[in-house]
Amino acid sequence: MTRQIAVVAFAQSDHRRTTDELSEVEMLMPVLHEVLARTGLRTSDIGFTCSGSSDYLAGRAFSFTMTLDGVGAWPPISESHVEMDGAFALYEAWSKLLTGDADTALVYAYGKSSPGSLRDVLTRQLDPYYLAPLWPDSVALAALQAQALIDAGDTDESALAAIGARSRAAATANPHAQLRGPVPRGDHLVRPLRTGDCPPIGDGAAAVILAAGDRARQLCARPAWIRGLDHRIEPHSLGARDLTDSPSARLAAERAGAFERPVDTAELHAPFSSQEVVLRKALRLGEEVVVNPSGGALAANPVMAAGLIRIGEAAARIHRGACDRALAHATSGPCLQQNLVAVLEGDPR
After folding, report:
1. Which residue among 52, 93, 185, 213 is buried most deeply as judged by most CB within 10 Å?
2. What is the value of pTM for the model shown?
3. What is the pLDDT of residues 297-326, one digit of tens each?
């Protein structure tokens, strides 16, 4: 890469179980105002805008056009959208800045999971001919993966409970998290997964600003430079995959340069405790790596924004000097089907 791109600002909403009193635009606008205020930029200063969301969650087609009211689309702006987690929108914005077509980019994502049955909505991601007609919900599919890991000897229910407990304990220091502090292990939701192994359902939004080269240093005292960014996908058919492993996450990490030098922090988008087991192995994360100091998706999982939040949380730690080299991961689809890995670094101190 001949051009260096950095995350220079990050903001997120307080993640809540329901936001019935707010529209998507009303939920998003304070986040946009905050992220712009962190850099002193105005909407007219942004060279490219890209968003991530899902019409399935909103229940109407082209719902993302409504949130452009919160951005301000007049005078006309350069804008794009992906029907995926905002982390994948960040990938598009990063690519745009690499071409030199813009020096700054605003990336935002949002999701309101509370209005409907999220477990049923997510079945629309499945193969429409063989799997989706059976309506296996997201928790049931994650339970299949968890049981495969237990059968392979990679984990057990006590180890999974410890992951959930650690994540929510870490979230105590995160004022935006939906679940903080001790959370009961709970009953089996779908065996072997208990309530404590599963993410909360809630609403939330997040935004980051990217900038290139000297512009990044002007906007942020310690930019989080994106040293590598890549995403890969597993076969659509679950029967064609080994659910105890994630070759796509490993390949994305390799292409992003994650294995060239150790990282000190990892923000993993692992909505289920069992998925952290898979990702730790695929991404070669040892016990010395601080994993999900924000609490991760087990503490707050706003669908379509949780992956972007992992990148934002990793960048924010670099901004404030809490880490020097971080790995951020985002996923989409059942059982870690699609995986994105970013490697972020701060300037030497």
Report:
1. 52
2. 0.97
3. 999 999 999 999 999 999 999 999 999 999
